[in-house]
Design goal:
This protein has a three-stranded antiparallel beta sheet with strand order 5-6-7, with no helix packed on it. The chain contains 15 helices and seven strands. 39% of the residues lie in helices and 8% in strands. The protein is mainly α and 381 residues long. A hairpin with a 2-residue loop joins strand 1 (43-46) and strand 2 (49-52). It has three domains: 3-80; 100-154, no CATH class; 156-329, Rossmann fold.
Length: 381
């Protein structure tokens, strides 16, 4: 029961008795709850019989006190639940993270050496194409994010998780900036991170999965969580399947998703169907608006008609977290994001030079200027 949500005195009394009967004989102390509910346990005489007093729908007046007693009681009940004594089953599979050096990845000679003499010639022919693909991929700097772990000192899964901030006393928020990755590489990285995080939660013991839950915020999710297509490339398929699995199974392992996108119609329907709450900022595309209208309650559809005229920071909020769909104003954070809208007329009215030199330096085309060495003083002749 939640006494702070307008529970009547009669209902509070009945729920207290249900809790009392359920916990009888367990040794769990419910004195605090009994004291809080005692004003509603009074009797009255009617027709020469003692019976519970009828409060006729009056709400409880000490909801905060009852809620505190219930919270303490919940902790006492959880402490009585026996912990899982069975050890975690350790099974290595093909998905178990294993360290493989970059040199070993590019060396296919070991595969040929492992084959018999009769098969070595045939395997060598089949590996010719693989060798060329590996050589091309390893020499392509766009894919260096997959092969630079040796240079970064990441030798095992523990070091990889530490690089994401999984250390004692570390920050509770980790930002993985993938904005500068190539478009072809992005889905593969997202799929790898998503799978690793979900499988890490799955390896927890059953009584530990609901502790320290994780939330993954997917920014610009339409770039790597698109709906399935016939011409879907491999990276997009892997990424979509990884986050669809998190959306469907992550809750029971303590892993949730926040999906942010400017094109909700380009997000996998499987992921959208598992979302419980929605914050809709201004939308202009009719496909995106119709997409939302198909999944929201009927009484909220009229409110969604305002989505095209929302101001900056306004949103339509609906879902299980709000009783009534509402139009809200999001508070501006103390540290505002660098997302100011350009003002072309004001900027173009004054002559300004585009900082092309800074762009070339960031691109790696022009070396960053280094401070020149001070000329040494020559001794006087």
């Amino acid at each position: 029961m939640n006494p702070r949500r307008g529970v009547s005195k009669n209902v509070c009394r009945e729920r207290y008795r249900a809790i009392s009967d359920f916990l009888s004989g367990t040794g769990i102390d419910i004195t605090a709850l009994t004291t809080a509910v005692s004003p509603y346990l009074v009797k009255e005489t009617k027709d020469n019989k003692q019976q519970d007093k009828n409060f006729y729908g009056e709400p409880v007046v000490n909801g905060t006190v009852i809620a505190k007693a219930l919270q303490d009681l919940t902790i006492a009940i959880e402490s009585k639940i026996p912990k899982s004594s069975s050890p975690i089953e350790i099974t290595a599979t093909g998905d178990t993270p294993s360290y493989i050096s970059t040199a070993a990845v590019g060396n296919t000679a070991s595969l040929v050496a492992a084959a018999s003499l009769e098969e070595s010639s045939q395997i060598s022919q089949h590996l010719t194409t693989l060798r060329m693909r590996l050589k091309t991929r390893l020499s392509d700097k766009r894919w260096s994010v997959f092969t630079n772990y040796d240079a970064l000192g990441v030798k095992d899964a523990l070091e990889w998780f530490k690089s994401l901030g999984f250390t004692a006393g570390g920050s509770k928020v980790t930002i993985i900036d993938l904005s500068m990755l190539a478009h072809e590489v992005l889905p593969f990285i997202c799929a790898t991170v998503g799978r690793m995080l979900l499988e890490a939660r799955e390896k927890l013991a059953a009584d530990q999965r609901y502790h320290s839950p994780w939330v993954i915020a997917l920014e610009e999710a339409h770039n790597y969580a698109r709906p399935a297509r016939q011409d879907e490339d491999r990276g997009q398929a892997q990424s979509r399947k990884a986050f669809e699995r998190i959306a469907k199974e992550g809750r029971k392992f303590g892993l949730s998703l926040i999906v942010a996108s400017q094109r909700p119609s380009e997000i996998s329907p499987t992921i959208i169907s598992q979302c419980a709450n929605f914050f809709s900022h201004r939308l202009q595309n009719p496909d995106d608006i119709d997409h939302f209208k198909r999944i929201i309650p009927r009484q909220a559809q009229r409110l969604l008609d305002q989505v095209t005229v929302l101001a900056s920071g306004e949103a339509i909020v609906f879902g299980s977290a709000v009783h009534v769909p509402s139009r809200v104003q999001i508070k501006v954070p103390s540290q505002e994001p660098s997302s100011v809208t350009s003002a072309p007329y004001a900027d173009w009215s004054e002559p300004q030079n585009f900082p092309i030199a800074d762009v070339l330096k960031a691109w790696g085309i022009v070396e960053v200027d280094k401070p020149s060495a001070q000329p040494s003083a020559k001794p006087a002749e």
